[in-house]
C-alpha cells in the first residue's frame, strides 16, 4: 500500500483546482448539466451506472470527485445515504446550495481525494462511486484505490466509470474525417500539461485558468491498483460509446451516450470491485 500523504505536487493541484473552480461557474448554467431539469426531478445518473448500481436504498454511499453534487443528490433521491467529496471550493459550495434547495440531505466535503481518510472515518461506506472524467486528474492510481478501499466496510463495493484510455489516444482530423493515434497509452509519472480553454460542456465561454496537469492511465494499471488495494475485480467492461461528444463526427444514441460511426473502439469503461474481507 502506498503512503497516506497527498501524492499530488502542490503546483499541479493548485492549477487543476483553479481550473475546476472556474469551470463550476461555467458549467452550472449549461444544457449539459441541466440543473433546472435536476431541480424538477431529473435523475442525473446515466444508464450504465443506474443498471449496475441497482437498488441503493439505505446504502451509505461515498461519491468521490462529485463536482457540484448532481449525481450525489440523485443517489440521495434514490434512497442512498450520501456524502460527496471534491477539491473545488466552488463545487462544494454549489453542491451544498443544491442540497438545501432540494431538501435532499447530503454531506459534502472539500478536500483533495487523496486525503479523504484524513477527513472521513475509514470503513464507513457500503459503496464508493466515481464517474466520468475523474482519473485523468489522478497521478497515483494506487493511492486513489487505497483511499477508496479504506473508506469501505469489509464487503463494500466500488463502482467507477470513465473514459477509456483509448479515447485519450485518438486524434480526429475533421477535414479528412479520419482518426489517428497519438503515442500515449501507458501511464507516466510526469503529467501532461493540457491547456483547457473550453470545457467539455461546449458552452459557458472560455476559461482564464486554462493550465491543467493530467495523467494517462492504462487498463492494466486500473486492475492492478484495485487488486493492490484489497479489492476483487468483479467486472471490467469496455464500451464503444462514451458520455460526451469528444469529436464532431460523434452521434448521440437514444440512451444519451455518444458513439463514433463506423468504428468499434473502446472509448469508455466501467469497473465493479468488491472489498475482500480480511481473513
Ligand atoms: C469531470 S468532473 C466529475 C464529473 C462528475 N461525474 C459530474 O459530471 O458531475 C471531475 C471532478 O474532479 C474534481 N477533482 C479533480 N482533481 C481532484 C482531486 N485531486 N481531489 C478531489 N477532487 C478532484 C474536480 O473538481 C471535478 O469536480
Task: Explain what you see.
The protein is of the alpha/beta class and 279 residues long. It has one domain (10-163, 184-239, 269-275): Vaccinia Virus protein VP39 (Rossmann fold), CATH 3.40.50. 29% of the residues lie in helices and 26% in strands. The protein is built from nine helices and 14 strands. The protein has helices at 10-28, 35-39, 47-53, 70-77, 89-102, 116-119, 141-150, 165-169, 219-228, and strands at residues 60-64, 81-86, 107-110, 125-131, 152-163, 170-173, 178-181, 192-195, 211-214, 231-239, 241-242, 251-252, 258-259, 268-275. Strand 2, helix 5 (89-102) and strand 3 form a beta-alpha-beta unit. Helix 1 packs parallel to helix 5. The longest helix has 19 residues, at 10-28. 35% of the residues are buried. It binds S-adenosylmethionine (SAM). Residues 8, 16, 20, 65, 67, 70-71, 86-88, 91, 112-113, 131-134, 137 line the site of S-adenosylmethionine.
